[in-house]
Structures are given as structure tokens and as C-alpha cells.
UreC (Sporosarcina luteola), 86 residues
Amino acid sequence: ADEYDIQIALHSDTLNEAGFLEDTIQAINGRVIHIFHTEGAGGGHAPDLLKMASLPNILPSSTNPTKPFTVNTIDEHLDMVMVGHH
């Protein structure tokens, strides 16, 4: 991502099998990153992912939204809305 100047969207490990919150923060190394399920429901480092929202380089979200401006945006949007706002 650094080499090609592209964004990273991270859905971290709920069961902490690949590392804990501190390991993820260390791997991000101050880079700006978008993380999903920051509130801790539905994924991410349970139970302490909310701590990520306090970091200045983190763009948090609470759902796993459809990626905008892609070929599947329209097809996936209704499903995402129905699941996220049932």
C-alpha cells in the first residue's frame, strides 16, 4: 500500500488468532487506515477494538459497508442496508 499509495481497509481478527490489538496497532505503524466494526460487534479484536477509535490515524466504521464506485456497489447495497438496519 505504501509503495503504490493505495488505501487499506482492515477487518481485524475477532478471535485474536493472528495477534492481539497491540499487535495490530504495531503493524499499522502510524499509517492512516480504515477499520471495520470499531464498536466491537460483528468482528474485530474483541473486546477492546474500540480503543482504535482513539488513535489519530484510524478512520473507524461500525458496519462493513459496500465499497463505493465499484461494479458491485448497486447489487450489494440493498443487502448491506437490510443487514445493517434490520
Remarks:
- The longest strand covers residues 33-35.
- Residues 73-84 form the longest helix (12 residues).
